[in-house]
UniProtKB/TrEMBL annotation:
<feature type="region of interest" description="Disordered">
    <location>
        <begin position="120"/>
        <end position="172"/>
    </location>
</feature>
<feature type="region of interest" description="Disordered">
    <location>
        <begin position="1"/>
        <end position="28"/>
    </location>
</feature>
<dbReference type="GO" id="GO:0006396">
    <property type="term" value="P:RNA processing"/>
</dbReference>
<protein>
    <recommendedName>
        <fullName>RRM domain-containing protein</fullName>
    </recommendedName>
</protein>
<dbReference type="InterPro" id="IPR012677">
    <property type="entry name" value="Nucleotide-bd_a/b_plait_sf"/>
</dbReference>
<dbReference type="InterPro" id="IPR000504">
    <property type="entry name" value="RRM_dom"/>
</dbReference>
<feature type="compositionally biased region" description="Gly residues">
    <location>
        <begin position="131"/>
        <end position="145"/>
    </location>
</feature>
<dbReference type="GO" id="GO:0003729">
    <property type="term" value="F:mRNA binding"/>
</dbReference>
<keyword id="KW-0539">Nucleus</keyword>
<dbReference type="InterPro" id="IPR035979">
    <property type="entry name" value="RBD_domain_sf"/>
</dbReference>
<dbReference type="InterPro" id="IPR033744">
    <property type="entry name" value="RRM_RBM8"/>
</dbReference>
<dbReference type="InterPro" id="IPR008111">
    <property type="entry name" value="RNA-bd_8"/>
</dbReference>
<feature type="domain" description="RRM">
    <location>
        <begin position="43"/>
        <end position="121"/>
    </location>
</feature>
<keyword id="KW-0694">RNA-binding</keyword>
<dbReference type="Pfam" id="PF00076">
    <property type="entry name" value="RRM_1"/>
</dbReference>
<dbReference type="GO" id="GO:0005737">
    <property type="term" value="C:cytoplasm"/>
</dbReference>
<dbReference type="GO" id="GO:0005634">
    <property type="term" value="C:nucleus"/>
</dbReference>
Length: 172
C-alpha cells in the first residue's frame, strides 16, 4: 500500500494475565465440549431452569458478584406473564463469564436448580477422516480420489485401446 491508507481490522480482545498460562484459555469450552464463542459485544451466559417467579433483580444479585453485567434478558411468557425458564446474561470479559458459570452451574435459585453455560458455541472439530455430520465430500473428489473410472467422451482417444469411430461403436 503505497498511499499509507489505514485498513479497518477487527479488534482482537486483549489477553488477561491469568489467561496466558494455559492453552485451554484461548479456546474456552462448554460442559458439552463445544468451543465457546464471543458475541459481538461480550460473553453471553445462558442460564436455564430459572424459576417462573424469578426477577431480573434476583439474577442481578446472583450473577453481579462475578463482574459487571452488560446486559440481562429474562424473557416472559406473554400468556401467563411468568418467566419462560431461561435468562441470557452478558459479561464483558471471558474470565467473568467463566467464573459465573463455574460458581452458579447446578446451584439453587429460589429453591430451583439452575444450570449455566456459554450461550454461543462452535461444535468441536471432527477428525478429517470421519464422514459424520460434515456433509460428506466437497467438490466431487478431485484427481485420484474417485473409486470408479471417469467416463470418456465419445471421440476421446484411449492409448490402451485402438481408436474406433462412433459408427463402429454403435453397430457393435
Amino acid at each position: 500500500m503505497a498511499d499509507n491508507t489505514e485498513m479497518d481490522l477487527d479488534e482482537v480482545p486483549p489477553v488477561e494475565e491469568n489467561e496466558v498460562s494455559s492453552k485451554a484459555s484461548s479456546n474456552p469450552k462448554t460442559a458439552a465440549g463445544a468451543f465457546a464463542v464471543r458475541s459481538i459485544e461480550g460473553w453471553i451466559v445462558l442460564v436455564t431452569n430459572v424459576h417462573e417467579e424469578a426477577s431480573e433483580e434476583d439474577l442481578q444479585d446472583r450473577f453481579g458478584e462475578f463482574g459487571d453485567i452488560q446486559n440481562l434478558h429474562l424473557n416472559l411468557d406473554r400468556r401467563t406473564g411468568y418467566v419462560k425458564g431461561y435468562a441470557l446474561i452478558e459479561f464483558s470479559t471471558l474470565s467473568e463469564a467463566r467464573e459465573a458459570i463455574a460458581a452458579t452451574n447446578n446451584t439453587k435459585l429460589l429453591e430451583q436448580t439452575i444450570y449455566s453455560d456459554f450461550a454461543f458455541v462452535r461444535p468441536p472439530p471432527t477428525p478429517h477422516n470421519s464422514r459424520g455430520g460434515g456433509g460428506g465430500r466437497r467438490g466431487g473428489g478431485g484427481r485420484g480420489g474417485s473409486s470408479r473410472p471417469r467416463s470418456r467422451s465419445p471421440g476421446a482417444k484411449d492409448e490402451a485401446a485402438p481408436s474406433r469411430s462412433l459408427q463402429d461403436r454403435i453397430t457393435s
